Amino acid sequence: MEEEIIKVPRETVMSRLELLPGLIRDKETEILAAQDEINTTQYMVDLRKNELMSILCAETEPEEIGKPVKARFKNETQREAELQKRGAEDEIYSGNLKEIAAKTKAVKELQIGLKFLENKFSAARNMAKILKGVEKDE
Fold first, then answer.
1. Following CA atoms 65, 66, 67, 71 in sequence, which dihedral angle do they give, to the nearest 10 degrees?
2. How far is CA 78 from CA 62, 75, 83, 97, 128, in A?
3. How far apart (Å, rounded) are the C-alpha atoms in residues 35 and 88?
4. Exposed, middle or buried by CB within 10 Å (0-12, 13-18, 19+), for 117?
5. Is residue 14 a contact partner of residue 132, using CB atoms and an 8 Å limit?
6. What's the CA gap between 41 and 48, in Å, rounded?
7. Virtual CA dihedral for 15, 21, 22, 27, nearest 10 degrees?
8. How far apart are the C-alpha atoms of 35 and 95, rounded to whole Å?
9. CA distance 93 to 47
């Protein structure tokens, strides 16, 4: 096993050490951009949800002469149930929710890629230390 480690060319290890920090930085930038997109889309979902809730709160029962106007959805549970129903039917709302789910998955994949690059960098750094020790002994 030790012989295999020693056979790795020093130039290969050094080029990895020089290359990987830039790749790690690029991956971190990708993750931040994707998270910003998620936040923007979440803002759009919240905005649309508030619009739908305003519509629900403004809806009233059909008016009867001589009786006060009554809200159609009398409590929070009824409003939430109706919001879920209308949200599923609303193309903008449901489309944005699907987009958030897809982007969240993409961020997780990017984070896995980042961790892989960080591990490669750590391995290259350790390899350089080993090679430095081997060169000293020679």
1. 50
2. 17, 6, 8, 22, 64
3. 24
4. buried
5. no
6. 11
7. 130
8. 18
9. 9
Query: In sequence order, what DSSP letters do the residues of 54-116 get, joined into one string?
Result: HHHHH-BPPP-TTS---BSS-SHHHHHHHHHHHHHH-HHHHHHHHHHHHHHHHHHHHHHHHHH
Q: Among residues 42, 45, 46, 73, which one has the least CA distance to residue 57? A: 73
- pLDDT of 42 reads 97
Listed as own residue / partner, the contacts of 103-107 with beta carbons closer than 8 Å and 24 or more positions apart are 103/34, 103/37, 103/38, 103/41, 104/38, 106/34, 107/31, 107/34, 107/35, 107/38
- Bridge partners of 60? 71
Distance CA 118, CA 43 (A): 32
Q: What is the mean pLDDT of each run of 10 residues along the chain (138 residues)?
A: 58 86 96 97 95 85 71 82 90 94 97 96 89 65
